[in-house]
Amino acid sequence: MIISGVHPIQEAFKAGKTVAKIIVSEDKNIPESLYREIRSQKIPIYKLAPDVFKQKYMNETGLIAILEDIQYCEIDDLLMHPANGFSRILLIDEIEDPQNVGAMIRSSVGFNFNGVALTTRRTVTIGDGTVRSSAGTLFMQKIARVGNLSQMIDNMRDRGFWMIGTSIDAKMDVSQIDLNRHIGLIMGNEEKGVRQKILEKCDYLVKIPIDPSINSLNVSVAYGILAYEIKRLTK
Length: 235
What we know:
This protein is α/β, with parallel strands linked by helices and 235 residues long.
């Protein structure tokens, strides 16, 4: 996997990820702290002429790291309840934009969600765009791939989770729910939302009250609002 930019690469190191090599444009400087980390781990650095770098990687940062492929966690590990407090899991249902997924993972860390589940069908794979939009926080979060989201929901409910689906047709907002319990929050496709068969498995359906002149919010923005509200309203 390729990631780019100083901060995402630093976060990869902090998370203990294995970096195979660093590639840098000759007109860019590696910050001293990052350079020391690279050298301490004896990671090879390859320099390319600026035009060659841009042509090959189509990247404006001028600095990339080649990592081993991301290791997804097991479902049982994802659903393990914390020693203190309630578990919060984000379920991503067929979201295709890597920037949206990366931003949602960043918010999941910022608002203390315990993990993220991505559907294997029509959900973007983790790559450089996702890592950059997560600002490297992707390496701080538990992430699992789920082939059958319906079965995942059944599994979660058996483990004491209450499932919240998001829909513009919902009649309630998240403040009307008792959030002092284990919660799974489902966010859906940018255009279609959460699939109907998934919504039917939810304990609650919620929407964000917005001006009626606007039909909907960007999915990563909507998730950030809901994640904040869940954190704020939990006692």
